[in-house]
Amino acid sequence: MMTTPVWQHRTSRANIVLWVGWLFLVALFVFCWQVMTKDTIWAFVADAPEQAADLGSRMFPPRWSYLDKLWVPLWDTMNIATLGTLLGVIIAVPIAFLAASNTTPSTLFVRPVALFIIVASRSINSLIWALLLVSIIGPGLLAGIVAIGLRSIGFVAKLLYEAIEETEKIQIEAVTATGASGAQILNYGIVPQILPAFYGISVFRWDINIRESTILGLVGAGGIGVQLQASLNTLAWPQVTMIFVVILGTVVISEWVSAKVRHAII
Amino acid sequence: MLSVNHLSKTYAAGDKALDDVTFTIPSGQVVGLIGPSGAGKSTLIRCINRLVEPTSGSIQLGDTTITGLSTSELRAVRRRIGMIFQEYALVERLTVMENVLSGRLGYVSFWRSFFRKFPAEDVQKAFALLARVGLTDHANKRADALSGGQRQRVGIARALEQDPQLLLIDEPTASLDPKTSRQVMRLLLEMCNERGLPAIINIHDVVLARQFTERIIGLQAGKIVFDGPPSELDESVLTRIYGEEDWKTLEHDSEAA
Questions:
Q1: Is residue A200 part of a domain?
Q2: Is some CB atom of chain B closer than 8 A to the CB atom of A56?
Q3: Structurally, how many domains does chain B consist of?
């Protein structure tokens, strides 16, 4: 007589491995919880709702009259974000072409250098770039613009070189087959394919940069962050709230613009 | 005239795609290249304009030896060879006109092509070709707005915009329905005959190959196993090229077509 074959989703060995895996995760969670709470003073935590309510009452209502003094720093912030994005994009484009495996002149030497620049730019937060730049070129807008620019290089170049690598090879082959030069192949075969990605990435980064540039003033790199720091230092909580409202409004508008632009080019 | 002598191609992974391929195509002859998938048909035509670098052997177009040219000489010889692709290979986000004019890229400077300032006679020729393939009204549409048959006709116009001395055609009908396939094949044949243009057409469809070409080369595992007129393409030859199969139904199709 034939036995009916039994089907199991996992072998018993796979089942054991799975259970051990879960057990390990739970153990890790318990361990991390202990590390995390070792230095916690529980009296403060118990107090938290009252503290929050207290701070909230000081922050509210926002000081609307302070708005007059925020327009110029807000304009500075937008300039830092926009010019910084422009700077970043201009430097990122050639780096992306050097980093993409299908356009790089040398996979052995040039590509690793380009990839290193991308990683270096991405690994340092714009606030830290700003900190460094304020001590190098002094406080002000320029430090902020360069900081945003340097941070944007990695982001834009990485996404752009991925777009270049995803281009359809056959379209490029067809342009090559006509006897086109290298620059013409780039212009006719590759650029039309990556243009939507390029616009999308640039506007997306600009949108991120608006948010990042609002805090650069904390380290002296200009923009609305300077007012934020001044208000925090003098415990002028209604002004802090006002700044938050302005930042929120700006971010909402920039996200709306970015979404519109990206939608339009797809 | 094209002559291919002892051409071999071994890919880096060690696959031998072409093995000692030799043939000659006199001017004006349209050759159908048939064979199973992976027989090396695509590699063969890509070796001729060196989109794929041959491992050994030589290729001559007229007086020019294509194998062993420098980069700039290779560009000059590529201008003389038009290529048409299976998936049309149009630059999807450029207009029909830009795609056709890209056939002149080898002749114009970078800045001219960058600002799309092609010489007037190039533009005139492009309009004439678009009229010839029946797409005059579509000149300013983006290529991705066209249907498959229309796109392939843009591909044909682009190749002919080069004023080529040879056409390489890679599976021109593989993405098209039977009716459009026949229309495209007929158009290609007319174009070649009008210009006395020799062509190599890679084609899966044996019936189409028989109907439209005057000579058939059969490729099997990188080797030429048949070279003759379509009338000699009988059951035993098809078995030699593709392997054992009931080829009788195909005979009927062919007679009906």
A1: yes
A2: no
A3: 2
Closest residue in chain A to residue B108, using alpha carbons only: A180
The two structure tokens encoding residue B102: 């890209």
Find, in chain B, the residue whose alpha carbon is nearest to that of A167.
Answer: B91
Do residues A126 and A134 make contact, with C-beta atoms less than 8 angstroms apart? no
CA-nearest residue to B161 within chain A is A178
Q: Are residues B91 and B67 in the same domain?
A: no
Q: Which is nearest to A206 in space by CA: A246, A149, A245, A154?
A: A149
pLDDT in tens, A86-96: 999 999 999 99
- Contact between A231 and A50 under an 8 Å Cβ cutoff? The reply is no
| Residues on chain A touching B78 (C-beta within 8 angstroms) | 176-179
- CB within 8 Å: B90 and A174: yes
Looking at the structure, tell me whether residues B204 and B141 fall in a common domain.
no
Nearest residue of chain B to residue A195 (CA atoms): B93
DSSP secondary structure, B38-96, as one string? TSSHHHHHHHHTTSS--SEEEEEETTEE-TT--HHHHHHHHTTEEEE-TT----TTSBH
Mean pLDDT for the stretch of residues B222-246? 88
Q: B51: which chain A residues are within 8 Å (Cβ-Cβ)?
A: 173, 176-177
CB contact under 8 A, A193 and B92: yes
Question: Does A191 lie at the interface with B, CB-CB under 8 angstroms?
Answer: no
Among candidate residues A174, A183, A197, A179, the one with its CA nearest the CA of residue A103: A183
Looking at the predicted complex, does its ipTM rise above 0.95?
A: no
Identify whether A19 is part of a domain: no
pTM of the model: 0.82
Task: Identify which of A168, A178, A196 has the shortest CB distance to residue B106.
Answer: A178
DSSP per-residue codes, B136-153: GGGTTSBGGGS-HHHHHH
pLDDT band at A2 (very low <50, low <70, confident <90, very high): low
Q: Which residues are registered as beta bridge partners of B201?
A: B32, B169
Interatomic CA distance for residues A32 and B185, integer angstroms: 70
How many helices (H) and strands (E) would you count in chain A?
11, 0
Cβ-Cβ pairs closer than 8 A, A with B, add up to: 80
Q: What's the structural domain count of chain A?
A: 1
